[in-house]
């Protein structure tokens, strides 16, 4: 696990900065308990824990500025933390330093129903936002698996099952404010829905994984809760047949809100876990959002397309209870998959390829996993060409960790060879750092490195992530 | 016109670079005819012409690299040029230098129907692309007024009437390649539809107005040509009533493809120009894209919403000939507006505000224009809160130029005070440079400046645009 070597620590600087911050913020706010620190180096994957030296919970932009200025003065790393649900070691502290847990900056500052946007602090989670919005008829569509903080979702450019219709965080953050390594606050855009005013700093900070600035305020686009929703499911003889149906559906222009694939192994897990009796072959699950008439028509058109691609067992409904039943397999997929190898931990891969290459990529991934002896169910946000192989491994067994690492590397290389990416939605962090240059080449790495050095010349913001050249 | 002061020229460097390029590319390729140079400093607005010293038409990435390396060696400005239809002086050469006219890099390299994307060179225009795509059932939706080059559209982050449904260039460029000031080529992203791999260099270069890199290849998202299209129009007693209908339509979730406003003065111009007899009050024009049943239903729902907001004379159709008739007022709006003051030139403003502020902003803009004695019709892409006041002035009359400049500044400030932007789709260039800091504050300007210096330390790429701090 060479990737996870610790980086050199600035021991004196860290000690001094902690003293100064204790002085300025109050000793109690600079928390150093071991359990808390380890929890804040939380990784949900195969990467080992590298806890920060202290955790501080800022409650205001001024707090963040104070901490950043102190850390800049003593060259101490700062690791911004949302809910710790990122998957590629984004919140690890390989050079130590101070974790800024943003969870107490969780105020919703303004909802603008006419403009369909919301201004909020980064610690608000996506579910908390949608609960808050319930009476407005609006919702925020980006839905990664976890109830992540919106600041963390922006920092890692998260997405989820709705992205095929509503886009990713890149498409849904209208503007943000962030504290730069200098301690200054940057406002990236006005609240207008469209702008051509200068460099797109919003999207530069979205996905920058806490390496350019610490997000302290965001303006997000909202969507109207659809009048009607329909759900549809269909089984297919092969991943290829299912992918053909996906391509035809999108080419036809059906406005799918969600189009998810479960492979045969996942369906098997779901049957066991949820006591269902679905055919143990690849399954597509769809959702349409629109008018009553529209969503029924769309589901039926999909049924025809699916039939032409060899699909069987097509079912659809517009009733909520029935929808939940049809989608149960998807909702249970993660836990059901874990049940395929009791006691194992699931390590998620995250590649994304042009949709035309998806069937080939999934088939090769399944074959390779079988060849290497993995139990490895697959789920995919297939409208975008994005899928996850869940490697079920015993994380206390170094040979299994090594095999998982080898498999992930192999799959990253395969996706890249298909003009795809090693990460569709999880980000680079520590886990994918070795693949960024393979994907984009030296020009992009050099440009990203130049930007990083220009904005953060002391390299204090989340060092060791993305591994850009010094 | 302080903005348009010439910048210091590096006379020796320019002379040497031209000699070297004549040597290396052939003398005939380094064109210096005055008419050609003036045409390449083309501005369609009140900004005066500042021609480059020479124009070169590169035909390959290698050409671009050769020119960039030579210009870097002798510190000579480079101004990338698409079709010269930008509106804010983007292609002026205030410090002289070499214009790279990209129009001969106009090959479509690959269409991927299954992935709904296209790979092409930057000199392809939007209409040429759509002609090429006609048989594929796909189209590229971004539609600024001019038949601009796609490279220029990316560089200025262009949009148009379709943006409310299909987004702007920021949403439709999947990946690009650009030659950096170092002469290196950067590849910003793979061809997958979604990525979280590193900083979003694609969107950093989109909208950077040729100041960070010269785009040499792009991958664009395509859309399926809709099965059916409906058009609807409705008159309103006031801009406020029309804007209320816009807000209600979008909140309802109607998937409008276009929603355009003509103010009463524009309608008056259209009646005269096209011999129509529309009520001379604000007019909304809409288009819906979808299934036969869907688009008819949507137009009818809009009719109800419009009626509730006080609209009259609602008309809709799904037939193509009839659609063209309903939309004629919009298609003729520009030329009809010029007819309101024969011999005058139209100077376009371009502010964008949150939709909730749109009615106030348009009303104030009309009032101020009347107060200042302008003939100034208004058209708006109102679903996005973006509108253009067209100031009809005699550009040979310095007092009119000065008044137009004052009005534009007043309007920019007003939009900024409403949490809007001084440019929704035209960009900053020279014309809006004084407003960028007012809009975003010193933090953003400093960050943009740091990025610019990091990527282009010699400031050779399109100097004098955006006026970022050195």
Describe the structure.
The structure is a homodimer of 470-residue chains. With 470 residues, chain A is α+β, with helices and mostly antiparallel strands. Chain A folds into four domains: 102 residues, Uridine Diphospho-n-acetylenolpyruvylglucosamine Reductase, domain 2; 119 residues, Uridine Diphospho-n-acetylenolpyruvylglucosamine Reductase, domain 3, CATH 3.30.465.10; 107 residues, 2-Layer Sandwich (Alpha-Beta Plaits); 99 residues, Alpha-Beta Plaits (2-Layer Sandwich). The first copy, chain A, contains 18 helices and 18 strands. In chain A, a hairpin with a 4-residue loop joins strand 17 and strand 18. In chain A, helix 1 runs antiparallel to helix 3. The longest helix of chain A is centred in the last third of the chain and has 20 residues. In chain A, 60% of the residues are buried. The mean pLDDT of chain A is 95. At the A-B interface, strand 8, helix 8, strand 10, helix 9 and helix 11 of A face strand 8, helix 8, strand 10, helix 9 and helix 11 of B.
């Amino acid at each position: 696990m060479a990737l996870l070597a610790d980086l050199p620590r600035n021991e004196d600087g860290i000690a001094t900065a902690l003293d100064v911050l204790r002085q300025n913020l109050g000793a109690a706010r600079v928390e150093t308990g071991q359990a808390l620190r380890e929890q804040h180096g939380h990784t949900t994957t195969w990467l080992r824990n590298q806890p920060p030296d202290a955790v501080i919970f800022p409650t205001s932009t001024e707090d963040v500025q104070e901490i950043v200025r102190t850390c800049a003065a003593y060259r101490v790393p700062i690791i911004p933390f949302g809910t710790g649900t990122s998957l590629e070691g984004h919140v690890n502290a390989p050079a130590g330093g101070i974790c800024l847990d943003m969870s107490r900056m969780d105020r919703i500052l303004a909802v603008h129903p006419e403009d369909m946007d919301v201004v909020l602090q980064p610690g608000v989670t996506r579910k908390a936002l949608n609960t808050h919005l319930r009476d407005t008829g609006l919702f925020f569509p980006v839905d990664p698996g976890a109830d992540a903080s919106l600041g963390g979702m922006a920092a890692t450019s998260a997405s989820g099952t709705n992205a095929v219709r509503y886009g990713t965080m890149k498409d849904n953050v209208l503007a943000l404010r962030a504290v730069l390594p200098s301690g200054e606050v940057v406002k990236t855009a006005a609240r207008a829905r469209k702008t051509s005013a200068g460099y797109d700093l919003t999207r530069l900070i979205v996905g920058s994984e806490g390496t350019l600035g610490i997000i302290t305020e965001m303006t997000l686009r909202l969507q109207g809760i659809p009048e009607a929703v329909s759900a549809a499911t269909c089984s297919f003889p092969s991943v290829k047949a299912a992918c053909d149906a996906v391509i035809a559906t999108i080419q036809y222009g059906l406005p799918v809100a969600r189009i998810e694939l479960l492979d045969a192994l996942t369906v098997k897990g779901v049957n066991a876990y949820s006591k269902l009796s679905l055919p143990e072959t690849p399954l597509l699950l769809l959702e349409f959002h629109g008018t009553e008439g529209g969503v029924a028509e769309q589901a039926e058109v999909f049924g025809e397309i699916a039939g032409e691609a060899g699909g069987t067992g097509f079912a659809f409904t517009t009733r909520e209870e029935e929808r939940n039943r049809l989608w149960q397999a998807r909702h249970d997929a993660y836990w059901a998959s874990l049940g395929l190898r009791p006691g194992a931990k699931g390590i998620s891969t995250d590649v994304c390829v042009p949709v035309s290459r998806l069937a080939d990529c999934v088939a090769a991934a399944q074959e390779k996993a079988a060849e290497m002896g993995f139990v490895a169910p697959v789920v995919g946000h297939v409208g975008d060409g994005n899928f996850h192989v869940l490697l079920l491994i015993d994380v206390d067994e170094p040979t299994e960790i090594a095999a998982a690492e080898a498999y992930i590397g192999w799959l990253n290389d395969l996706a890249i060879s298909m003009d795809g990416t090693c990460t569709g939605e999880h980000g680079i962090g520590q886990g994918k750092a070795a693949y960024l240059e393979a994907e984009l080449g030296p020009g992009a790495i050099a440009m990203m490195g130049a930007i990083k050095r220009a904005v953060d010349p002391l390299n204090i913001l989340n060092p060791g992530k993305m591994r850009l050249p010094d």
